[in-house]
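#lab-general

N.A. 3:47 PM
ok so I finally got the sequence cleaned up, no stray characters, all 144 residues accounted for. can someone with queue access submit it? mine expired

B.Y. 3:52 PM
send it over

N.A. 3:53 PM
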Amino acid sequence: MPTVGDYGPGVRHEDFELDEEKCWALLGSSGIGRFAFTHGGRIQVFPVHYAVHRGSVYFRTSAEGVIAAALPQEGAAFEIDSARPDAQAGWSVLVSGTASAVEDSGLLTELFGLAVEEPWAGGIRDRFVRLVPRQLTGRQVFLA
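B.Y. 4:20 PM
back already:
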């Protein structure tokens, strides 16, 4: 009788792409993600508290920090995920697009009014960054 090992790794798992509606729903259900960008010739990835508002991803950073210094970014990305090792299941959502500092006073008023958890990083975090999606993708994997 064959065992799982006879078929190779991952043979009992199924994975599929998430549609855009499901990706947005998952983005709206979390509060911490990873912002990825390039700066100084290196890829940088920072965990950030974020909010989804009007079809974009927003988070706060320091006006003097590495993220602010790298803006605007044409090839930025934002990722969230969830993994359940006990169930051998998980999902991830990736937003790729352009990141820039928010300068519009009306939008800033709206953003400061959103219920977003305070950033964990120390110092003043009063610069909002907006990631406008060019591409939104997601995947889910589970044990079949």
